[in-house]
Amino acid sequence: MLCGGKYYIEFDEDAVDGISRRYALSEDFFTALPQDEIKSGSLEANAHLRPVGGIWHLHFEISGNVAVVCDRCLDLVSFPVETGNDTDIKFDEVREADETETSIILPVGEKGIDLAWYFYEAVLLSLPVKRVHADGECNRNMQDLLDRYENGSVSSSGTDSIDPRWESLEKLKQND
Q: Where is this region: Disordered (predicted)?
């Protein structure tokens, strides 16, 4: 069980109206998971689990903010999160039988479900692919260093000398 079972919900057949839980997803949540994408966060997750004719329907909504590493300057950048999911939980002897984006297959006789990884995946998938600060908000020192590398004013060896093997090619390039 992830996160010490803190996000585990037991199936209760007597809960005709379902089971509702509210969770706080903080830095402790993200550090307890085997991941390194999300560095910290302050989110609230509301989950509702209800029985529907032999299966369980899970609905959850998550909102708040998370911090990830900026792809450009490597400082932390915060992103708002507003996401949710609707999933049917089915029971079968073969776990991967019909598992899809909208259904989870659990072994017959399973007593509950740990929502931690499902919360994490929903948050991660809500983030943009390119994770950078808004224009002008990146770490200025890192941005200056990147600009120097892009303009060729800094060589990868830390000196401005050109390897003699490439010197002739560099001259040809400059003559064009």
A: 152-176
93: DSSP letter: S
Indicate the SS3 state at residue 158.
Answer: coil
Sign of the C-alpha dihedral computed for residues 115, 116, 117 and 121 taken in this order? positive
pLDDT in tens, 89-137: 988 876 555 666 678 888 888 899 999 999 999 999 999 999 999 988 9
Is 143 among the domain residues?
A: no
What percent of the chain has a predicted confidence (pLDDT) above 70? 88
Q: Within a 10 A sphere around the Cβ of 115, how many other Cβ atoms?
A: 22
Decide if 135 is inside a domain.
no
For residue 108, give its domain range.
2-126
Residue 43 buriedness (CB in 10 A; 0-12 / 13-18 / 19+): buried
19 in a structural domain? yes
- How many structural domains is the chain composed of? 1
Q: What is the pTM of this model?
A: 0.78
Beta-carbon contacts of residue 143 (< 8 Å; ≥ 6 apart): 72, 73
- Give percent of the chain with pLDDT exceeding 90: 49
Q: Does a structural domain hold residue 7?
A: yes
